[in-house]
Amino acid sequence: MAEQILLRAEGVRKSFGALEVLKGIDLEVRQGQVVSLIGASGSGKTTFLRCVNMLEEHDAGDILLDGEPIGYRMDGSRRRRLSEAKVSAQRARIGMVFQSFNLFPHLTAEENVMLGLTKVLGKSKAEAREIAGHWLGKVGLEARRGHYPYQLSGGQQQRVAIARAVAMDPRLLLFDEVTSALDPELVAEVLGVMKALAESGMTMLVVSHEMLFVRDVSHHVVFMDEGKVAQSGAPSEVFDRPDSERLQKFLGRFHGIFSGGG
Amino acid sequence: MIDYHFDWTVITRNADKFVAALGLGLGLAVVSLAIGCVIGLAAAYARVSGNKWLSTPVWAYVEVIRCTPLLLLIFFVYFGLPEFGIYVLDKTQSFILTLSLYAGAYMSEVFRAGLASIPKQYVEAAKAIGLRPWQRQRWVVLPVMFRITLPSVGNNLISLFKDTSLAAAIAIPELTFTARQINANTFRVMEVWLAASGMYLATAYLMAMGLRLLERRYASIR
Ligand SMILES: Nc1ncnc2c1ncn2[C@@H]1O[C@H](COP(=O)(O)OP(=O)(O)OP(=O)(O)O)[C@@H](O)[C@H]1O
Ligand SMILES: [Mg+2]
Question: From the list B132, B218, B222, which residue is nearest A85 (CB)?
Answer without folding.
Answer: B132
